[in-house]
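> call design_seq(struct)
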């Protein structure tokens, strides 16, 4: 039996809620949603952690404007640096933004190690920026973090919707807690549920032409219409 899995349970026992932000494919705004979700919750008075588990293309540090990439302090584990009031952990502290090519067992070992060594202590929310797609990473999180609830993001694209429905099928089959689905980059006011599953549809995030210029500046990000839409989604999550 992998001894680190028992350590993971201890690391996470004081977390009130774990939200895994996932998608069936890349390029749908998953990392942006996870980052602004974390910022919004923190600025509403919650204690929040953000774990970037995108091992191949971590980007939350770019979104949040993280500039201090020194290795975090250690004391009975790795203490996540506080970025914009958020307890933040990413593989970027280890890789220094160098490209990484991982396969199979390496992926699982990295995820186990990050979960086992990181000291989150007591938090209201831990937001996990999941890797895109449907692969070992998603299955590992389902295995090691059975208490996580999934927030799934798509775009109106038929290609994205098809991939997301496959992910939802897996999550439903595994009896995973599902907060619902969010549609990103909506270019009109139509709010109909584009998904065929019974998973709650939480609404749409409108396409925001100004979001790119706000990347790296959390204060500017929180003034965007995208952030306003995310706050509406948070209210629906709290209602469910």
């Amino acid at each position: 039996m992998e001894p680190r899995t028992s350590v993971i349970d201890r690391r996470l026992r004081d977390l009130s809620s774990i939200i895994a932000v996932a998608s069936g494919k890349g390029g749908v705004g998953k990392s942006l949603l996870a980052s602004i979700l974390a910022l919004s919750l923190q600025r509403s008075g919650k204690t929040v952690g953000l774990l970037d588990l995108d091992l191949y293309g971590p980007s939350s540090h770019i979104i949040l404007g993280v500039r201090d990439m020194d290795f975090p302090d250690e004391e009975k584990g790795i203490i996540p640096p506080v970025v914009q009031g958020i307890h933040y952990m990413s593989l970027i502290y280890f890789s220094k933004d160098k490209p990484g090519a991982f396969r199979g067992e390496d992926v699982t070992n990295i995820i186990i190690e990050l979960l086992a060594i990181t000291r989150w202590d007591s938090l209201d929310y831990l937001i996990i920026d999941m890797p895109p797609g449907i692969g070992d990473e998603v299955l590992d999180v389902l295995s090691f973090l059975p208490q996580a609830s999934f927030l799934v993001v798509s775009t109106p694209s038929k290609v994205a919707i098809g991939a997301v429905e496959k992910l939802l099928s897996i999550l439903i089959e595994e009896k995973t807690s599902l907060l619902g689905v969010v549609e990103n980059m909506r270019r009109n006011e139509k709010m109909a549920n584009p998904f065929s599953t019974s998973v709650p549809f939480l609404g749409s995030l409108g396409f925001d032409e100004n979001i790119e210029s706000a990347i790296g500046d959390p204060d500017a990000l929180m003034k965007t219409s995208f952030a306003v839409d995310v706050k509406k989604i948070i209210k629906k999550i709290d209602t469910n």
